[in-house]
Amino acid sequence: MTVKKKAGLKDYIALARPDSWVKNVFMVPGMLFALSVFKTPIDSHLFFKIIVGIISTCLIASANYVINEYLDADFDRFHPLKKNRSSVVYTVNPKIVYLEYGALVIIGLSLAYLISYKFILLSAFLLFMGVIYNVRPFRSKERVFLDVLSESVNNPIRFGLGWFIFSPALGAPDSKWDFDWINTFPPTSIIVAYWMGGAFLMATKRFAEYRMIGNPETAGQYRRSFKFYTENSLLVSMFFYAITSAFFMGIFLIKDRIELLVSFPFFALLFSWYLRIGLLNDSPVQGSEKLHTRKWFMLYLFLFTALLCILMFVDIPWLYWFLKNASNY
């Protein structure tokens, strides 16, 4: 039996997955939409909140990654790629792991406190979902379909964190919303759409992993939920999540920002293109560090994001006229 080497400093840093901080880009739409609603003054205080909020979210996400990698070490060795993770290759000290987790939590929540009480509560919820996803007796990642739904909750949480960086303590007087504390929360429709959109991305990742492992028994040893999945069930779930996301996205666009309707065909193309990539052998959707290799897709994603930014702040009067007159027929 091969004796594993003890983990070094860089291996404990690797547990926090700083390369996955890019996922916090899901905060940006929340920032932009809050900016368009509340007309938040762009000043040094706002830049301070943005920087502190992003750092806080990165640290809290890393806390979740630390317990994820530590508790998954015995399962990741059955995965063709994850078997090379530090927690699998090296012997890690549990005391250091929990100390690292605690330090990330304390610093992350301390920074979150500087933003607002809503921001720190949502940050705590992100940590809570990390426990639900990884720690027994919950460990939702082992439950069929619930694994996807519980992990993809992190997407609307990130949207909300971005939103609360820009939203005031109370509803902005110059916004179309009433001056009421509850109206500083984002619309439910965009939260559900974001959640289901994230579920689509996650189910596509599961599908790609399942196909790459290629052996149902081995796949079940890596992730218990894979004992119950099939390629067909994953494909059907991907279709359901995409349709549900589109439905709630449509509600959001009509009720809150009609100009964004222009982006809908491009939104559909984005989902379709991502699905096409997900169906490839050894698909790069298995990790954000691999997806960037699809240069045309990343270019399209950049242009699509730029389009959303424009539509968020530019009014299109004829679109209101068109929808008003179309409703008469």
UniProtKB/TrEMBL annotation:
Keywords on record: Cell membrane, Membrane, Transferase, Transmembrane, Transmembrane helix
Gene Ontology CC, one term: membrane
Transmembrane domains' residue ranges: 21-40, 46-67, 88-109, 115-135, 185-203, 233-254, 260-279, 299-323
InterPro entries: UbiA_prenyltransferase (IPR000537), UbiA_sf (IPR044878)
Subcellular location: Membrane
Family annotation (Gene3D superfamilies): UbiA prenyltransferase
Pfam families xref list: UbiA
Molecular functions (GO terms): transferase activity, transferring alkyl or aryl (other than methyl) groups
Main location, first listed in the record: membrane
Topology of the protein relative to the lipid bilayer: Multi-pass membrane protein
Domain of life: Bacteria
Protein name as catalogued: UbiA prenyltransferase
The organism of origin for this protein: Pedobacter cryoconitis
Classification lineage: Bacteria, Pseudomonadati, Bacteroidota, Sphingobacteriia, Sphingobacteriales
